[in-house]
Write a structure and sequence with these properties.
Helices cover 26% and strands 28% of the residues. It has 236 residues and is α+β, with helices and mostly antiparallel strands. Helix 7 (197-204) crosses helix 8.
């Protein structure tokens, strides 16, 4: 009966009936691994659930492990070279974040944040310096849309939409901001390399050998393309 009394119990009831608990369950890797009954049984004392679901399980700001600051420069997600790299900030880096995270991205001209989509969040792209074009596939109109950005301008990519970014100026710096505690991503390079060639060939009536030859240079989890090893002439 203690479940339904006290602040945590009240929060649980509030979000159960608002539907946000189920959103929280989808967002939490821990909640995905245990059933609804176990969430109720373990809601007192399961740190993973509390960290991943702050709207239901309030963060303990009295804990010695509470973090209010973090140096994003020390958290590199991917680095192609000194001019093209991505730093990440999420709940794993700063545990008081509440349903927000970001990527701090640096690019030189013609470098591309590869085509991808975010299955758990929308993305707000903010240009700090340089310039870039944000391109997205609108699933409702079935059209590609392209949005050039200069410093101070933003573009919004709805959750789950296929998109990419291309740097158009030197020293391009942008923030990608997400409404999720950790940005999750499905990369185009992984789709190309991990989908069996026979399935691609059969589904799209392709020559399997030619398909395998075409994707042979693709590096899984490219993140920033073209790869440093690529000596192909740049094409628009």
């Amino acid at each position: 009966m203690n479940l339904f009394f006290g602040q945590k119990g009240q929060n649980f009831i509030k979000y159960l009936f608002s539907g946000k608990l189920f959103y929280c369950m989808n967002m939490s890797p821990t909640a995905q691994q245990i059933g609804f009954t176990h969430i109720m049984r373990r809601m007192y004392g399961n740190d993973d659930i509390e960290r991943s679901c702050p709207m239901v399980f309030p963060f303990d700001y009295t804990s010695p492990s509470t973090q209010f600051t973090f140096d994003v420069n020390t958290s590199t997600l991917f680095k192609k070279d000194s001019q093209n790299f991505i730093n990440v900030l999420g709940i794993q880096q700063l545990n008081t974040l509440d349903n927000i995270s970001l990527l701090d991205i640096f690019l030189s001209p013609n470098n591309v944040i590869e085509p991808h989509y975010h299955q758990n969040a929308a993305e707000l792209v903010y240009c700090i310096s340089g310039g870039l074009t944000v391109s997205l596939l609108n699933p409702f109109t079935k059209q590609m849309q392209h949005f050039p950005l200069s410093p101070g301008q933003v573009a919004n990519v709805p959750q789950g939409w296929w998109h990419y970014e291309v740097a158009t100026e030197k020293h391009t710096h942008l923030l990608a901001i997400f409404n999720a505690p950790t940005p999750e991503v499905i990369l185009g390079s992984d789709i190309l390399k991990l989908t069996p060639a026979n399935i691609m060939a059969h589904t799209y009536c392709l020559d399997k050998t030619l398909w395998e030859k075409a994707i042979a240079p693709v590096v899984p989890s490219t993140f920033i393309g073209p790869p440093a090893s690529c000596n192909k002439t740049t094409e628009s």
